[in-house]
Amino acid sequence: MEWYKDYPHIGYDLEVSLLVFITFSVRSQDIRNTVGNIPMEWYKDYPHIGYDLEGKKIFKPIRNKDELDEFLDKMENPDYWRTVQDKMTGADIRLSDEQVDLVHRLQQGKFGDVNFNEYEPAIDFFSNEVMIHPVTNRPQDKRSFIPSLIEKEKVGKLVHAIKMGWIKPRRPKETTPQYYDLWAKEDPNSILGRHKMHVPAPKMKLPGHEESYNPPPEYLLSEEERLAWEQQDPEYRKLSFLPQKFACLRAVPAYSRFIHERFERCLDLYLCPRQRKMRVNVNPEDLIPKLPKPKDLQPFPTTQSLVYRGHSSLVRSISVSPSGQWLVSGSDDCTVRFWEVSTARCLKTVEVGGAVKGVAWNPNPSICLVAVSYDDTVVLLNPGLGDRLVCTATDQLISSYEEPEEVMDQSVQWAVAEGEGHEQGHRLILKHPKTVRQVTWHGKGDYLACVMPDNGSSLQVVIHQVSKRRTQNPFRKNKGLVQCVSFHPIRPYFFVATQRYVRVYNLIKQELTKKLMANCKWISSMAIHPGGDNVICGSYDCRLAWFDLDLSTKPYKVLRHHKKALRSVAYHRHYPLFASGSDDGSVIVCHGMVYNDLLQNPLIVPVKVLKGHTITHDLGVLDVTFHPTQPWVFSSGADGTVRLFT
Amino acid sequence: MSQVQARFFTENKKYLIDDVPFSIPAASEVADLSGVINKLLEAKNGQDLQDFLKVIFQKLCGIYYLETWDKTEVVEIEYVEKFTAPQPEECIMHDDWISSVEADSEWILTGSYDKTARIWSMEGKAVMTVAGHTDVVKDVAWVKRSFSHSLLLTASLDQTIMLWEWNSERNKVEARHCCRGHAGSVDTVAVDPTRTKFCSGSWDKMLKIWSAVPTVEEDEIEEPNRPRKKQKTEQMGLTRTPLMTFSGHNEAVSSVLWMDAEELCSASWDHTIRLWDAETGEQKSTLTGSKVFNSISYSPLCRRLASGSTDRHVRLWDPRSKDGSLVLLSLTSHNGWVTAVRWSPSHEHQLVSGSLDNVVKLWDTRSCKAPLYDLAAHEDKILCVDWTENGLILSGGADNKLYTYRYSTCVSDAGA
């Protein structure tokens, strides 16, 4: 080991040490491979293994040992364990005893030199004791007694940051011990979820007397019961077996349904619900909106009081005089009848030339005129009822008309009734180009609108001015089939209902202001609330749509109370009531309260179904109208009667 | 069978019995109870009272609630005399609906929809036809009856009231005055107790007071700009203008009557009954109902107003009550509008009502649950009823028939 004397290391682990030995041994034989420390695999395919000092090839020793030879060598050669192969030369080397001993020592982590003592006592050159003669005599550095500028700068920065509040001084630690409350968020009264969810497996029914081998006689089935049991579907049997009586327990045979019943039990256990379904427990009555009781919404019509009989065919249209004393009805039997409301007395019958489609009493109390439409004609009648002065004034108003100089070309011909017609009350006759379906007056009583439904035609709606005997066609073209029209009660608006839409026109600006979508297939009738902000539409598909014009163009509410097509709807002028008549022969009266407060939506409560009309030719109620002052509703029907409900 | 303790009492001194409770079978009917009382009266008075059948009213209605009846309690039963049912007498045919009827002891005056009024004798003989109106006659009234000269009023849909003088000896009728001023059909007239004035109510919401004394001068008409020629030719009698006009009703006036010489009462379609001072035209008080009033009647005997409205009830009111207008009683048995009511002129508890359900009902206000008698002779709506001093009930309606019934006045009154 003296070779190592000049080296920092004192040896190698096993592999390296072997190599060293090999070099030693090579040196002793003077065969030195000069390839250096390279992977010897590079020479694997060559016959030589390297070059010696003179540059001659060192050939690999001839090794023809196969696995068998190796094995035999291993078994027979006592020195096999100390034989290693020199990779540089390829020769087998037998290690000597010293070498083996060295390898052992190195393997054990001992020093190679046997004589080396690693635990020799150490002598300190530098001790903690101050010596009279120090080892070094260098003076102390200046920096060791001058405060550090860098540290001063760092501290200064920290102080500044603390002053500015950028660094918060450490919070004083709480001295009380803190524990996490595991159950803090849990309601002590509630049942834990897993407990709530617990569903016990279904229990088996305990055997009763009928299962006994010797049941009491009342459990045994009689002959009829047995037959009934056999005929019953197995699913519906009360007992799945027949109770039987045996003399003794020994006589009881094996139970034939045992396997079957065990299987059923397994199914029960396997298919039983393991989870409780959480259903929301809602009382269905809570879902119904809170509406006031109809009892509290009186007055409204409740019973049929009077029947106005006299027409021989269906009564298409009715109208009440503005005073509420008279009722006019137009029928398919080509007559118009005038009735006294309070007694159902027919005071007057006027014959016209066709089935009457529409009647309308002039809403102006100072004019006594009734517009009657049949076929293509509209007749203005003076019934001569009510105040005589008003009647004569109306006649004077009509006769005082003076023909203007310039004669306009009008689509409607105006003619003054004469002769017998005049005797009957006919005053003006308006000949239209087409069949007139509906007539309606403006609130002031001067304008009269007529509807002549004709798909695609430009002349479906005309507005007549009675005082000037003038006719206007307000629309250059009409979209769709016009069903009915109505004037706004206060403002200059005009409502035109086609099959699916209600269009609201401003008559002064001559433009479309609104288009209401009725959401129904075919509108049959329309009524405007006397306040003017609400419209109801009846339709042939059994719906009644209430529009709040301030709210939306879609219906505020759709009522589907009738079973058949609606024919007519009406508002009461003063009471918060509206009514609808339908082909199912009933009139439904609803409370429809409109509030002045814009924030409050109308309150709609159906209050009464009024029945009375008999259904004739699949037609029931054809027209409804309210009494102008009392909470009474009139309805006319296909059975040729007009009925008053109060 | 369970027994009930009952004590009988009456207000009629003539039929007093001892005030001791009797034990009667619980299932007793009215006839049984009358038998008991008749027996008691017989025993007491020793006279045969077979004719005096008794009607019994239950004050406590105890008999009907025997299931829960406390056996120890005594039922108090009031008994009154029974009246014989009204006997139909005459059926007088008209040409058209009968709108109004008023009868006195001798003659019957009816107004009809054929624009005429008619005078009939009690035997149903047509005596006179009063024609002159151009429209339906809505109401009629006698003003004065004397042996030969009588005055009568007819109100019509043609907005006029006519005052006629009828000479029964010569059987001639003459139109004395044509009262103009209403602007609507005149539905009701009433003559005041002094027989010098009358009041009319109209569809034009007004009440007007006119003089009922015939004169020879025509009143001034304050309508200079109206062409009067046409009217003059049509008009019969002298034109008369109202003395006073009362306005206050919001709807048509349907019925008017005089409570006494100074006080008027009117019923209207505006659901109110108003009391007026006839001298000053002041409105004294208002009774508010919930339905349109068709007819009212006042009985000076019991000081109650009876009203018929456009529902099934006959209501009784106290016109003197100042603290709220409460309905004292409502009599419910009709099935249609009550179109006419009339108090008995001689009995303070009885009234008659006619309805659109074709039945005339005779009521005793002490038994409000059921009427005493139903007079179901009419085949159509009843529009008017009347009750005369001598016990004749008349009813007319839309079947063009006027029925009269003899209703015997109380036997007790006759005896006493």
UniProtKB/TrEMBL annotation, chain A:
Entry's localization field: Nucleus, Nucleolus; Nucleus, Nucleoplasm
Pfam families the UniProt entry points to: BOP1NT (PF08145), WD40 (PF00400)
GO biological process: maturation of 5.8S rRNA from tricistronic rRNA transcript (SSU-rRNA, 5.8S rRNA, LSU-rRNA); maturation of LSU-rRNA from tricistronic rRNA transcript (SSU-rRNA, 5.8S rRNA, LSU-rRNA)
Gene Ontology terms: cellular component: nucleoplasm; PeBoW complex; preribosome, large subunit precursor
Main location: nucleus
Superkingdom classification of source: Eukaryota
GO MF assignments: ribonucleoprotein complex binding
InterPro entries attached to this UniProt entry: BOP1/Erb1, BOP1_N_dom, WD40/YVTN_repeat-like_dom_sf, WD40_repeat_CS, WD40_repeat_dom_sf, WD40_rpt
Alphabetic keyword roster: Nucleus, Repeat, Ribosome biogenesis, rRNA processing, WD repeat
UniProt repeat feature WD, residue ranges: 308-349, 614-646
Chain ranges of the BOP1 N-terminal domain: 43-301
Claim: Repeat is one of the keywords in the record: yes
Subunit structure and binding partners: Component of the PeBoW complex, composed of BOP1, PES1 and WDR12. Within the PeBoW complex BOP1 interacts directly with PES1 and WDR12. The PeBoW complex also associates with the 66S pre-ribosome. Component of the PeBoW complex, composed of BOP1, PES1 and WDR12. The complex is held together by BOP1, which interacts with PES1 via its N-terminal domain and with WDR12 via a high-affinity interaction between the seven-bladed beta-propeller domains of the 2 proteins. The NOP7 complex associates with the 66S pre-ribosome. The PeBoW complex associates with DDX27, BOP1 interacts directly with DDX27.
Protein task: Component of the PeBoW complex, which is required for maturation of 28S and 5.8S ribosomal RNAs and formation of the 60S ribosome.
Family according to the record: Belongs to the WD repeat BOP1/ERB1 family.
Name the record gives this protein: Ribosome biogenesis protein BOP1
From TrEMBL, chain B:
Molecular-function GO term, any one: ribonucleoprotein complex binding
Keywords: Nucleus, Repeat, Ribosome biogenesis, rRNA processing, WD repeat
Limits of the NLE domain: 4-45
Pfam families in UniProt: NLE, WD40
Compartments, record wording: Nucleus, Nucleolus; Nucleus, Nucleoplasm
Gene3D superfamilies on file: YVTN repeat-like/Quinoprotein amine dehydrogenase
WD repeats: 91-130, 130-174, 179-211, 246-286, 295-318, 331-367
GO biological process: maturation of 5.8S rRNA from tricistronic rRNA transcript (SSU-rRNA, 5.8S rRNA, LSU-rRNA); maturation of LSU-rRNA from tricistronic rRNA transcript (SSU-rRNA, 5.8S rRNA, LSU-rRNA)
Domain of life where this protein originates: Eukaryota
Entry's Gene Ontology cellular component terms: nucleoplasm; PeBoW complex; preribosome, large subunit precursor
UniProt family annotation: Belongs to the WD repeat WDR12/YTM1 family.
Physiological role: Component of the PeBoW complex, which is required for maturation of 28S and 5.8S ribosomal RNAs and formation of the 60S ribosome.
Oligomeric and partner information: Component of the PeBoW complex, composed of BOP1, PES1 and WDR12. Within the PeBoW complex BOP1 interacts directly with PES1 and WDR12. The PeBoW complex also associates with the 66S pre-ribosome.
Name of the protein in its database record: Ribosome biogenesis protein WDR12
